[in-house]
Specification:
alpha/beta; two-stranded antiparallel sheet; globular; about 325 residues; eight-stranded mixed sheet; 11 helices; about 40% helix; single chain
Length: about 325
Amino acid sequence: MITAVVYAESGGTFKTTMTANLAVALSRMDLDVLVLDLDPQTGNLTSLFDVGEDRSDPNADNLVKHILEMPDGDFASLIETSPEGVDIVPSHDMLSDFTSNLEQKITYETGVKDVSREEYPRYELLYRLLWERERVNEQYDVVLIDPNARAEDLLYNAMYALRTLVAPVKPAGKGSLSLDGLEEMVGNMETELDIGVGLSCVVPCGVGQTNAHKQYRDRFETTDAFATPVSIGSRESLMDAMWEAHGSAFKVIEERWKTYESDDGMVSKRGKRRVPDRELETLETIWRLAGFIATDTFDATVPEELVLDIVDDGTETLQMAGNGHPEVAD
């Protein structure tokens, strides 16, 4: 089974858009995909896929209630399916108060049971929900998590449950310091959780043509510490269009979504985008990344090609085996 948390300590690394694109790419590899949105902030995966109508309703059943073993319904009722075929457990405002609610649970249970607070399995709750109570491995081939940004209880529950990390990084600062920071982050997680954390790969994102960006990318690609199978160029227009299309970059390109200025202000419509080669290259890079995670990290068997059916513009075929040249912005 393929399980991964897409996480980076710094902001602006395309964490949410990468999670969405990987989920859709893996779904197009004929795999059943479930994504858990553990980020309570706006502009998260729930917003991107336009799900979670009850995310602000304090009385609605949600993932936190299930993690803390006080559900108001079946786990299956939390799941929504996006038009692109990915199942999603949406974010909910209650995620913001997860730690305080967890502390109340720990206080109550340690008060009635002969268990100290230090012995309480606070990071194992999501693991028990997914694998022991709900047995999601019997329904899905892939589980991905888009976590909250801070290293706290929710993130640690996500890492304990899935054990594997995909780390997008942005070209900022010195590459050697970023490498050291990643190794330190993984080491801290392993120490805190008392488990082994597998780092599937690191993905430099937003890589431009400057010498600093190229040196940063090269530093990651030449390290033996972890795999860097691809780098993704700066494609702000393509990634921004995902939010208007309420879907992945695959949807943006196939349906040719474009945001532009008109007499009524800014509008977004399908069928308006001119799809340049550089955006097809980016999509192929994402396809290759999903393939690397599936095959190299988890030894799955997946299709090598994906045929895109672009509205009013024919078809394009993405290949798993790329040309080996790193992608950069034009």
